[in-house]
Amino acid sequence: MASAKGMTSFYSYLDKETQLEGKIFIDGQLMATLDPTNQSSHVNTTPASIAMFSIPENAQTLKITGSLINSEGKKRHFDHQCKIVDIGVETAALHDDNRTVIQRLQALFNLLDDDNYFEENTGNTLALKANLPTKEFYQEIEKRLNVTLPEVIKVIDQYDIEMSNEGYFVDVKDMGNVLDFLAERSFPEDFIDALSADSRVGKLYQRSLVVYFFVGDGYEMLAWDPQGQWFWVHDHDIYSPVFFKESQKKFTDEDVVVTMLASYFLGDFMFDDNICFVDSAHPRGNITISFKRKGFYSSKLIPIFKNRSFEWR
Question: pTM of the predicted model, to two decimals?
C-alpha cells in the first residue's frame, strides 16, 4: 500500500470516565504507546486523539494490545490485529482540491456505485437543472436573507442531486434559518422560544442557514453562519452545535460539503473487524478504535474521514 500523507491520527470512542492503555504495532514494529494519563474526558460521540504515527509504505498489519480501564479501575484486556488496506486510489478524486465540488461529489457517487465495496448505496446521481437559476434570482434571495451566499451553495443549487440516504441539499429558494427549520418540523413553540433565548446558540441559530438536512435517528443538519462558520446540528443535542475546525489543512467551503457527505456514505465501507482501511489520499490519515459493549467491552477498529469535531485534518 502507499503510505498515508504525513502523520496518522489515532482516535478512540470511549464512554465517559473510561481510559485506554496499550501499544500499537505495525508489522511487529512498535508505533505508539497509549498513555491513559494523556487522554481527556470525552463521551462516545466525540473521539479523542490519543496517538499519532506514520504508516510505513507497504505496511500489512496493524495490531493493538492493551486494556480498557473503567471508572472503578477494573481492566478489560484485549489483543486485536487487522489487515491494512489502502483505499487511496479510490478516494483520490474525492480529496482533490483542484476539482470542483461537483466533480468531487461525482467521484464520491462513482465510488458508491462500485459493487466491490457497496451493495445498498447505489442510485446517487447529480444532473444540471434544465432551467438554471439566474444571477438575478440569487441576488433577490440574498437580499431577502440579507446575506451573501458562499459560491458553493449556489453551485450545488444548479444541480438536481439524488442520494440514497435520507438527506438532501436545501434549494436556495427554500432556505431558512435553523430555528425556522425546527419550527416547520413540529418542534413545540415553547421549545423554539427557549432555544431562541439561549445566550449560547439563540443568535447563532437565528442568523444561520440550513444547507443540508438529514432525517435519520432524529433530525440533523449542516448549517452555514454568515459570520464564516460551518457547523452541524443534531436534535438530540440541540444546544451543542459542532463546528468545523481548521488544523493541518485550511479547509474550503467545498471541503466542508464533501467531507460531510463522505462521512455518512463511506461509513458502510469502513466497518470490518478484520480490516483497517487507510486512506493515503486524505490530507491527514485517521484511524479510530471503537469499543462496543458486550458485557464489558470488545474492540473494533474502523477508519474515519472526519469525526464529530469535524476537524479537517
Answer: 0.76
